[in-house]
Design brief:
Residues 14-225 form the NAD(P)-binding domain. The chain is α/β, with parallel strands linked by helices. It has helices at residues 18-29, 41-47, 66-73, 103-120, 149-171, 216-228; strands spanning 9-13, 33-38, 56-60, 74-75, 78-79, 82-85, 91-92, 97-98, 128-132, 176-182, 184-186, 195-200, 204-207, 213-215, 238-243. Helix content is 33%, strand content 25%.
Length: 244
């Protein structure tokens, strides 16, 4: 495969399904080198066979393991150019919770500790961290439709609070970042235009948007095209809401 003029190395955490898998697919299609850390590599190997994905390295490991994340971050004497983390927990609907209520905050702490350890050992570089959160938990006002508030209060409260801690840890870390907050996630692919809202973590909304849903496939494609393949300065160190 011919490399693009500025080939990036991108680490994916949580790309076995959903937004992460879509973003990985579109990043690979653009010719960039990708590393995917996952607990069960067979899930990605079925989708991206080694004979058709020469730019993809799939590594078995846990995104909560500092040593595993550090190994994936390092490329030669530098860290990767971009980190995309879309890790999340599985819903437990009957209990209105998820199987790991701390999955995102632990993932953020692990990633930042791995970066710190690498730099302490002489590895240089500063990756752009792209972390997947959710709409509905802004400190600066409502960014979901009124009709969705009871649903988020019941079913998204626990994972939403976890993602807020993740957002804070990344925003306060001093690393370059973008937090992407999709509205309610659905399956499929659509030709609907994607609307974007931007929020500064300290100063509040730059531009507002409220919407009901977006598909995982379209959210991942938008992430790849607008935050990985190229990055507009208006998205740097901001929370970005995407919805139809």
């Amino acid at each position: 495969m011919q490399m693009p003029p500025e080939t990036k190395t991108v680490l994916f955490l949580g790309a076995s399904t959903g937004i992460g898998q879509s973003a990985l697919k579109h990043t690979l299609a653009a010719g960039h080198r990708c590393v995917a850390l996952c607990r069960d590599p067979t899930k990605l190997e079925k989708i991206f066979p080694s004979d058709s994905s020469a730019n993809l390295k799939i590594i078995r490991g846990n995104a909560h393991d500092v040593a595993a994340v550090a190994r994936c971050l390092q490329t030669d004497k530098r860290v990767v150019d971009v980190v995309v983390t879309t890790i999340g927990a599985k819903p437990v609907p009957l209990k209105l919770t998820v199987d790991d209520p701390d999955v995102c905050k632990k993932g953020a702490a692990t990633l930042l500790e791995a970066l710190a350890q690498l730099r302490h050992s002489g590895i240089t570089g500063a990756p752009h961290i792209i972390a997947c959160s959710t709409a509905g938990f802004s400190r600066f006002g409502r960014n979901i439709p009124l009709a969705m508030i009871p649903i988020y209060a019941l079913f998204v409260k626990v994972p939403g609070e976890d993602k807020v801690v993740m957002e804070d840890r990344i925003a306060e870390s001093g690393e370059s970042f973008t937090i992407i907050g999709p509205s309610h996630l659905i399956d499929g692919e659509s030709s609907k235009p994607i609307r974007v809202g931007i929020e500064d973590p300290t100063n509040g909304p730059v531009s507002d948007v409220v919407g009901y849903s977006i598909s995982r496939e379209d959210a991942g494609k938008w992430l790849a095209n607008n935050l990985v393949l190229q990055i507009d300065a208006k998205y740097l160190n901001k929370n970005v809401l995407i919805t139809y």
